[in-house]
Design brief:
The complex is a heterodimer of chains A (474) and B (611).
Chain A: H1 7-10, H2 13-34, H3 48-68, H4 72-76, H5 78-95, E1 97-99, E2 102-108, E3 111-113, H6 115-131, H7 141-159, H8 164-169, H9 173-179, H10 184-202, H11 205-224, H12 227-247, H13 257-279, H14 282-308, H15 311-321, H16 330-342, H17 370-402, H18 407-431, H19 449-466
Antiparallel strand pairs in A: 1-2, 2-3
Helix pairs in contact in A: 2-3, 2-17, 3-19, 5-6, 5-7, 6-7, 6-18, 6-19, 9-18, 10-14, 11-12, 11-14, 12-13, 13-14, 16-17, 17-18, 18-19
Chain B: H1 7-32, H2 35-42, E1 44-50, E2 57-58, E3 64-76, H3 86-93, H4 97-107, E4 115-121, H5 123-132, E5 139-149, H6 155-158, E6 161-163, H7 166-171, E7 180-182, H8 185-189, H9 191-195, E8 199-205, E9 211-214, E10 230-232, H10 236-245, E11 251-257, E12 262-269, H11 282-291, H12 301-304, H13 314-324, E13 338-341, E14 344-347, H14 357-363, H15 366-377, H16 385-397, E15 416-417, H17 420-427, E16 447-448, H18 451-462, E17 466-468, E18 473-476, E19 489-491, H19 496-511, E20 529-535, E21 543-550, E22 557-563, H20 573-586, H21 594-602, H22 606-610
Parallel strand pairs in B: 2-10
Antiparallel strand pairs in B: 1-8, 2-3, 3-4, 3-5, 6-7, 8-9, 10-18, 11-12, 11-22, 13-14, 15-16, 17-19, 20-21, 21-22
Classes of the chains: A mainly alpha (474), B alpha+beta (611).
């Protein structure tokens, strides 16, 4: 037992430094996005930046408190913390304040808090606590069931608010689970399906089909190790395509390019299948099954979208994806967001010189779309620095996680990395139009007391655990 | 170290790959693709709200009463301001530099990105400013419309338009800061019809604030939809004539077409010029009018004054007596200059005695109706006075008094017909009877009505037993039918034959022998049926009241006239009513009756109100 710690030595100052850089850079952007010549004092808490400054100070105090609390607290009280946060989520559904059609806020001690932000910490702790238990193997039916409940419960409760954007964050724990022994193919398929899903909804059918075909050919080439076979396959497909293209009109049938491509693919696949059966080449059959499986998946997505969803739901999904362009909704915001970021150029317009993010912009310009201010005022240089800071922090977290003696601390560390990564990738992705617009904040950047405090706690619980990394927490 | 430790590398790779994708995308939109920069330059987008013109208001004959004139607001967009020649702007607008500075400072409100700087600038200033607008980036014009009146009359009826207040903005998403809303009268009641639908225009504005054209080819633009026009039931000529007749008197005239319930004119004096409540001067003028506590020009007497009806209530009394079977056409009562019974006395004027029903109405004999009322309340059919009173009251209420008629006005008042509980509280249960409430016999006491209600029951008598809720809307553009309630007949549970008798009495009151009380309302070729009233007024001279309808058969107009301090019914109210009827039915005043018109126009009671 080491109770007397030399904290200055044991604290990972690199993490703290990265955190401070992100917080400072973030606050400068909030200041810029809501800067108003009338209110020049940065301590004016009626302005976003003054308010945020207050929350940053509160976060710093919380960090000190975290270090004052015994490190065993988090392990010992995990289930209490988890249970309390679940209760808080239920309380929100009952006593919550409705903002933007979802009941996500609750008034506590005169502050509006968003419990969902804090539940992420509790869930990460709970997962770490459970998986670090004696003789627990992740990939057994029992532990899968327990994990499903641990993650599913907050997802369900947050979904009921309804705030599906925040609920979606909890899928990030798949990264943690992969590290702790989930089979790799599940991660691979999940990532691929996610990408495919995004492509299906965001880009045209033809492009998705072509990407899938090229991918199949690539895998075929890698596994088969014969470039000539790939070329043959391409030739056969091309022949089918042009054959159909000129033959079908002769019998009075007309199809657009997409269907011609699809028919050509089906036709040539039959040839390949026969070849694989004759030559007993399992690779081809395997690739064909995967290929048509994924094509089927994109069809299902499209089918569900256009036939199962009602028009107003379609609109909602479209808005989520930023496809619908209407002056007052998200699609319009997304366009504006891209314009703001794009107009920054390489070096940006300079601090406080942004015009897009100040005037006719979305109400979320200092919350979910804060990255626009970074892009506009600091340019590509600024966005690169921000992204490098995040990646640096993420990699540092993984480094910290791996050097833990106790499994609990390591798994929690991966939880922190997973949550931060999801927020970072999705938030920035949505501002530049490569991810659907789901309203989740950018850690340490976005305006909002709950998210500032929650992300700080999330990170510094790890820093606290790391400060006693040589102790085996059990 | 465990068996999966190497997986950290895969995760780090995922992080790096994601970051790479984000960076490539950012590099593309920030550095490679210059279209975003161009968009940004063009992107000083300006959404302008297009305000629809309010619907026009016509009278029943298609005469235009209310229309619109353009007005120009000078708007300020503080974030688009560039240095400009402030002295020049001050000179054009005729304001001080301090006011300009204060206005600019005030406009820095993050909640409103564009504010009116000066509302409704004069057309002259507009003309000058419009030419030099390019010198003042950050300022621009907004066109609004204001109400304009072809005739300055019927103010209470037409109502006025003002800016919405905070409460309305908070409770109704249709309204934004600075929007106009109809507040009273037709403008208020038919706000939804008249206001139209706002549109918007999204414009591209360059760095200098110059409009470059529609944003994205105008795909976000929406046209404003002009408000629907309204045809009201008012006869403009009659309305104006009535206002002229009443200009030296305080009171009200309401005229209704009995068969339809359409209000032909509705007048309340003193009135005000409707143009006073338009535009920038509105709030100042409004408070001025409101402060005029002596004349109360904003007070709409036709709907809101609670007057005692006096003897004009006697036809209803007679109808109830006949219906209850306590009198018949031959019932006679003697009158010895009044009604006297057990310590109760109601005076009457001198006339022959005894009188039967028709002459009782003709002579407006108080004693006669006291006897009728006494018989109604003491009717052995009912167990006690309270039950008889309630039966009486129910019939009275069925004439549309004692409650709002539910006409298309925003500010109608109920009047008052005392419920029996009122007397119970006052005298104690079973401690009151016909004699304690005898004033009701002659339309005094615990009975208050509005001029609209009086005109309405006159219409009910003219219709021989029903009324249609009076209303001022005749037609709404694009809508085939009015609200259902303006077609429904409200039946009165009294036999048509009884109406015939009372109408005969009312005919005699105007056209009868020497004892008639309303000879001053007689017309040459038209049979006017009417009833005078002299309502006691504790605050001064009695009020002059008259109700009438004409012609006797197939009536075209039913009217109530109330002249405060007019001393007795036949003195002012009856001749005014007769002039209104003649004007409406024959379109002019016959030469033989020009003197009546002159007498009314030359008369003046205004001094009597100030005392």
């Amino acid at each position: 037992m080491i109770d007397k710690l030399n904290l200055t030595e044991e604290i990972d100052w690199i993490t703290v430094g990265l955190y401070l850089l992100l917080v400072i850079f973030g606050w400068m952007n909030i200041f810029a996005s809501s800067y108003n010549e009338q209110f020049t004092s940065i301590f004016n808490i009626r302005q976003n930046y003054g308010d945020q400054l207050l929350w940053i100070l509160v976060s710093f105090i919380m960090i000190i408190l975290l270090f004052a609390i015994d490190y065993r607290f988090y392990h010992f009280f995990t289930w209490v913390i988890y249970g309390f946060s679940i209760l808080l989520l239920i309380a929100v559904l009952v006593f919550g304040v409705t903002v933007n059609n979802s009941k996500s806020w609750i008034r506590i001690l005169g502050f509006n808090l968003q419990p969902a932000e804090f539940v992420k910490i509790a869930t990460a702790l709970a997962i770490a606590r459970y998986l670090s238990g004696y003789n627990i193997k992740l990939w057994t039916w029992k532990s899968i069931a327990v994990m499903a409940v641990l993650i599913g419960l907050p997802v369900l409760l947050i979904g009921l608010q309804p705030d599906w954007g925040t609920a979606l964050v909890f899928t990030c724990f798949i990264l943690l689970m992969y590290r702790e022994g989930m089979p790799g193919w599940i991660l691979a398929i999940s990532l691929f399906v996610t990408i495919l899903f995004l492509m299906t909804l965001l880009i045209s059918n033809i492009s998705v089909l072509l990407v899938l075909v090229i991918l199949a050919l690539a895998i075929f080439g890698v596994l088969n190790r014969k470039v000539s076979h790939v070329l043959y396959a391409m030739l056969i497909m091309t022949a089918f395509y042009f054959g159909l293209r000129y033959a079908l009109p002769l019998v009075g049938l007309k199809f657009n390019t997409y269907y011609l491509l699809l028919f050509a693919l089906v036709g040539s696949s039959i040839v390949f299948l026969i070849y694989s059966l004759v030559r007993k080449n399992r690779i081809i059959a395997f690739i064909l099954v995967l290929l048509f499986g994924f094509i089927g998946f994109t069809y299902t997505v499209n089918y569900v979208f256009s036939n199962v969803l009602k028009p107003h739901q379609q609109t909602r999904v479209n808005i989520l994806l930023g496809k619908e362009t209407d002056i007052r909704n998200v699609g319009y915001n997304l366009n504006q967001s891209k314009i703001a970021i794009g107009s920054g150029g390489f070096f940006g317009k300079g601090f406080l010189k942004g015009t897009q993010t100040k005037l006719d912009f979305v109400p979320e310009q200092s919350t979910d779309f804060i990255f626009c201010t970074v892009g506009e005022e600091w340019g590509f240089a600024g966005t690169t620095i921000a992204i490098l800071l995040y990646v640096g922090l993420l990699i540092r977290i993984i480094f910290l996680a791996e050097r833990q003696r106790s499994q609990f601390a390591r798994i929690y560390g991966y939880g922190v990395a997973s949550v931060l990564f999801f927020h970072f990738a999705v938030n920035i992705g949505m501002t530049i139009g490569i991810f659907p617009v789901i309203g989740i904040p950018l850690p340490f950047f976005s305006y909002g007391g709950s998210s500032m405090l929650a992300f700080t706690l999330l990170l510094f619980v790890l820093v606290r655990l790391d400060s006693v990394r040589k102790v085996y927490i059990r | 170290m465990d068996q999966y430790a190497n997986r950290r590398n895969i995760l780090v790779a995922i992080f790096l790959l994601t970051a790479l994708v984000l960076l490539i995308r950012l590099f593309y939109i920030q550095v490679v693709d210059s279209s975003y920069k161009l968009s940004a330059e063009n992107n000083s987008k300006r959404t302008e709200i297009l305000y629809p013109a309010r619907g026009l208001i016509y009278d029943r004959n298609g005469e235009l009463l209310v229309y619109n004139m353009p007005a120009y607001d000078l708007m300020i967009a503080p974030y688009e301001l560039k240095p400009f020649d402030s002295a020049e702007l001050c000179e054009i607008l005729d304001i001080t530099i301090d006011r300009l500075r204060a206005g600019i400072a005030r406009s820095y409100n993050p909640r409103y990105r564009r504010e009116p700087f000066i509302k409704q600038i004069s057309p002259e200033n507009y003309a000058v400013l419009q030419e030099r607008m390019y010198k003042f980036p950050g300022f621009y014009m907004r066109t609004r419309t204001l109400r304009k009146y072809s005739k300055e009359f019927a103010s209470h009826l037409l109502g006025y338009v003002g800016e919405v207040d905070e409460k309305m903005i908070a409770s109704n998403a249709d309204y934004l800061m600075g929007d106009y809303i109809g507040i009273s009268g037709l403008e208020g009641y038919y706000e939804k019809v008249l206001r139209g639908t706002k549109g918007q225009e999204v414009l591209l504005v360059d760095v200098h604030g110059r409009v470059k054209g529609p944003y994205q080819d105008g795909r976000f633009d929406e046209d404003a939809i002009v408000g629907k026009n309204l045809v009201c039931t008012i006869d403009a000529k009659l309305q104006q004539y009535g206002e002229t007749l009443m200009k030296n008197y305080r009171g009200s005239i309401v005229a209704i077409e009995p068969a339809t319930g359409e209000i032909l004119s509705i007048i309340s004096t003193p009135t005000y010029n409707p143009s006073l409540l338009v535009g920038r001067a509105r709030s100042m003028n409004y408070s001025k009018l409101q402060r005029d506590s002596l004349r109360k020009p904003l007070f709409n007497r036709a709907l809101m004054a609670n007057y005692p009806p006096g003897s004009t209530f006697k036809p209803i009394q007679a109808l109830i007596g006949l219906q209850e079977g306590v009198i018949n056409v031959n019932s006679s009562f003697s009158c010895n200059a009044g009604f006297y019974a057990r310590g109760v006395s109601v005076g009457c004027h001198v006339h022959s005695s005894p009188l039967n029903l028709l002459h009782g109405i003709e002579n407006s004999c108080n004693a006669y109706f006291c006897n009728v009322y006494k018989r109604i309340i003491e009717n052995p059919k009912y167990a006690n006075a309270e039950k008889a009173y309630n039966a009486w009251r129910d019939l009275v209420l069925s004439f549309g008094v004692g409650d709002r008629l539910n006409a298309d006005f925003t500010n109608e008042l109920k009047g008052f017909i005392a419920p029996s509980s009122y007397y119970d509280r006052y005298y104690g249960s079973n401690h009151w009877n016909a004699l304690t409430t005898i004033s009701l016999a002659i339309g005094q006491g615990e009975i208050l009505v509005t001029p609209l209600q009086m005109a309405n029951w006159t219409a009910a008598i003219a219709n021989r037993g029903f009324y249609i809720i009076p209303h001022v809307v005749k037609q709404i553009e694009g809508i085939d039918t009015l609200e259902r309630r303006f077609y429904d007949k409200h039946m009165i549970n009294i036999d048509t034959a009884n109406f015939g008798l009372v109408i005969k009495g009312m005919e005699l009151a105007v056209n009868g022998g020497p004892g008639r009380t309303a000879g001053s309302a007689q017309l040459q070729n038209i049979i006017v049926c009417g009833k005078t009233g002299t309502a006691e007024n504790p605050h001064g001279k009695d009020h002059s009241v008259f109700i009438a309808f004409a012609p006797k058969d197939n009536p075209k107009i039913a009217i109530s006239v109330y002249v405060e301090h007019g001393e007795w019914g036949a003195r002012w109210a009856a001749p005014i009513a007769s002039l209104m009827i003649e004007k409406y039915l024959t379109d002019s005043i016959s030469p033989g009756r020009k003197w009546v018109e002159a007498r009314i126009l030359n008369g003046n009671l205004l001094d009597s109100y100030d005392r």
